[in-house]
Amino acid sequence: MRRLLSFVLCCLMASFVLPAHALDPALWQTWRTRFVAADGRVIDTGQGGVSTSESQGYGMLLAEAAADTAHFDRLWNWTRTHLAIREDGLLAWRYHPQRGVEDANAAADGDLLVTWALLRAAERFGRADYREQGLALASAIRHHLIAASAWGPVLKPAPAGFDRPEGAVVNLSYWVFPAIEELARADPDPVWPALRTSGRELLRLARFGRWSLPPDWLLLADPLRPAPGWPARFGYDALRIPLYLAWAGERDELVLAPFRAFWGGYACTKRLPAWTDFDLDAVDGWGGFAGVTAIAALLGIQVPSSVMPRFEDLDYYPATLVLLAQLAAREGTP
Fold first, then answer.
1. Which one from 24, 44, 54, 216 is the annotated catalytic residue?
2. DSSP label at 21?
3. Active site residue 87
4. CA angle, 54 as apex, 316 and 308 as ends, to 5°?
5. N or C: at which end does the chain have fewer Cβ atoms within 10 angstroms?
6. 8 Å CB contact between 272 and 296
7. Going by C-beta distance under 8 Å and a sequence separation of 6 or more, which residues neighbour residue 158?
8. Residue 144 φ then ψ, to 5°
9. Of 119, 108, 249, 238, whose CA–CA distance to 177 is shortest?
10. What are the backbone dihedrals phi and psi of residue 298, each rounded to the nearest 5 degrees, phi first?
11. In the prediction, which pLDDT does 21 show?
12. Are 299 and 334 in contact (CB under 8 A)?
């Protein structure tokens, strides 16, 4: 199956192919040259040049996969210096290059990604300090970002700001399933496998619109529904859910089928949509988002490689998703 998926990705993305045992050095160099500052700050070119705990976590994961010790150190040192400012051990989530930390609230996905990157780097580079730092962050996540619910333990998007009178709000794309599995091995607390189970269960239940897809933001009420205050859509957040499922080796067709149905229905148009609105069943009219194409390929959805833009022309988010999809193809895939 992995050989078949590698062939699909080869046909789909041409020069985006991942070598057998490492991130393609040329692609990694292109990504880090365009999106990593000299001090280790990851620059989100699609959001005015800000940095987030999420972007730092993605950069650290890519540096580890590329076996780039120097840049991993640089990325982590910047993250510790500028984002590790909270008393609870979590990371501040948003940094502006001129104003510094704009929002000191934490973001659960960013903390999970950084934790996972540290644990991976500890093994690859033989660094016990990375493991210790990763486990400390894992403990902070357990204590401050996981809450009980009727569906089992759930991942709070942040320590504060997402509780409503009618229920808590969660973002199912924050369940970074392969990271949760790694934490279950490295930090043997029963909450991690329970969190994985609750995430998959919510994905089975939280289905909306024509394609029965999960929303970017979900209200944990009875019944479950898209959270008020956010667009009722499967969008740029939720499109990462199948990436993480594939990376974790998900094989349950009931979980994967909605994503295959959505993108599979547009494969013949060569322009896979990034989002759909649940109320109108509308989709974005632009399509052609390279990150979507890379993630859809993990599920066996193909579009001609001729419609793929050059990697060096991609903005931060699609370029990052392309590289993450390649890692998912190597390490997981359904």
1. 54
2. S
3. no
4. 30
5. N
6. yes
7. 93, 105, 106, 107, 108, 145
8. -120, -10
9. 249
10. -65, -25
11. 43
12. yes
Residue 305: per-residue pLDDT: 64
The Cα 35–Cα 154 span in angstroms is 32
Lookup: tokens for 124: 């690859």
Instruction: Name the residue with tokens 């895939």.
Output: 333
Which residues, other chains included, contact 90 with Cβ-Cβ below 8 Å and sequence gap of 6+? 106, 111, 137, 140, 141, 144, 145, 159
pLDDT band at 23 (very low <50, low <70, confident <90, very high): confident
Q: By the 8 A CB rule, do 90 and 81 touch?
A: no
Tokens for 166, please give them: 């009618």
Catalytic residue among 24, 44, 68, 109: 109
Nearest 10 degrees: CA dihedral of 238, 243, 245, 248? -140
Place of tokens 């833009």: 309
Peptide bond into 157 cis (omega under 30): no
Which of 236-250, 293-307, 315-329 bottoms out in mean pLDDT, i.e. has the lowest?
Answer: 293-307
Q: What is the pTM of this model?
A: 0.92
CA 278 to chain centre: 22
Q: Alpha carbon 2 to chain centroid distance?
A: 21
Measure the CA–CA gap between 283 and 275, rounded to whole angstroms.
6
How do residues 157-205 score in pLDDT, each as one tens digit?
A: 999 999 999 999 999 999 999 999 999 999 999 999 999 999 999 999 9
C-alpha separations of 306 from 15, 264, 328 in Å: 12, 18, 23
Q: Which of 232, 241, 210, 251 has the alpha carbon at shortest distance from 334?
A: 251
Burial per residue of 79-98, b for 16 or more beta-carbon CB atoms within 10 angstroms, e otherwise: beebbbebeebbbbbbbeee
Q: In what order do the strands lie in the sheet with 94-96?
A: 51-52, 94-96, 100-103
Annotation marks residue 279 as catalytic: no
Q: Determine the Cα–Cα distance for residues 48 and 40; give it in Å rounded to an integer.
A: 17
Question: Are 182 and 127 a contacting pair, CB within 8 Å?
Answer: no
Distance from chain centroid for Cα 317: 10
